[in-house]
Amino acid sequence: MRSIRSAVLTSFLLAGSFLLAATAQADIKVVLKITTDIPALRAKLANNPQAQQMMSALGLSGNGITMVIYGSGPRSRVDFGNIISSISDKKTSTVIMVNRMLHSYSSTSTPPGTASPRVTYRATGRTKTILGHLCREYTGKDITANGGVSSVDAWTAADLPTISYDSGLGSGASALPAGLKGIPLSLTAKSSGPMGPMTVHLQATSISRGAISASVFSVPSGYTLTAGGGMFPGMGAGMPSAGGSGQ
Asked: Does 242 score more than 50 pLDDT?
């Protein structure tokens, strides 16, 4: 169903775009729980059991889904549950989107220097400790991929090596948020857009430091290259219609 695919895309972009930062100086892995709530979409599909089951599997019913972020030098990888992965290399300016449901992937080039910051964060002066790391609170507003407005509240740990990440959307979508220092270990983004109000919350559950295998930043063997797959290569075929009209 197109609306569910759009919700997955928006959730992934909101989560990933707030983890953009400079190149990591040491390997790091951060595991987060990401919870997405879209009241209008839930109401629209309230009488569609198949769609509700799909939403639950995709973490769109308030149940949450695991997001894992790997950083190693100019390379990064973001796993959005068992659905999609984004593998980015700032050195080669490439982004690979992997559809883990259909075992397919697409590759794009992102010319360096084409992006510009979309949002400026400001420090509130508040602090708290998350997973043993002192975090400072930042707030800001962002213009989302669908043209909506997102207000953001982030708690970041400046003592952790920051992660290089590119969303794969090209100019304006992979810039370092101005004023934001450190990796967000807790973040809440509230946005408005075509699907109505939407809330995305990220909460770090574990952080590990240590060498990360180069294979983590490679496409798994047996995956098929899909031309023009964009963010979700082959996703149209991999998402059931949920009995809807495709809207």
From this structure: no
Pick the CATH number of 2-235 from 3.40.1080.10, 3.40.30.10, 1.10.10.10, 2.50.20.10: 2.50.20.10
Burial of 159: CB neighbours in 10 Å, binned 0-12, 13-18, 19+: exposed
| Dist. CA 12–CA 235, nearest whole Å | 14
φ, ψ for residue 222 (rounded to 5)?
90, -5
Query: Residue 37: exposed, middle, or buried by beta-carbon count in 10 A (0-12, 13-18, 19+)?
Result: middle
- Rounded Cα distance between 128 and 132, Å, is 10
What pLDDT is stored for residue 177 in this prediction?
A: 52
186 with 30: CB under 8 angstroms?
A: no
Q: How far is CA 82 from CA 20, 66, 99, 102, 103, in A?
A: 21, 8, 9, 11, 11
Quick one: pLDDT band at residue 240, thresholds 50, 70, 90? very low
- List pLDDT tens digits, range 191-221: 877 777 888 888 999 999 889 999 999 999 9
Q: Is 230 left (phi over 0), alpha (psi -120 to 50) or beta?
A: left
The predicted pLDDT at position 54 comes to: 72
- Compute the distance between CA of residue 95 and CA of residue 109 in angstroms, rounded to an integer: 6
The closest alpha carbon to 67, from 128, 15, 129, belongs to 15
B/e letters for 71-102, b = 16+ CB within 10 Å, e = fewer, are bbbebbbbbbbebbbbbbbbeebebbbbbbbb
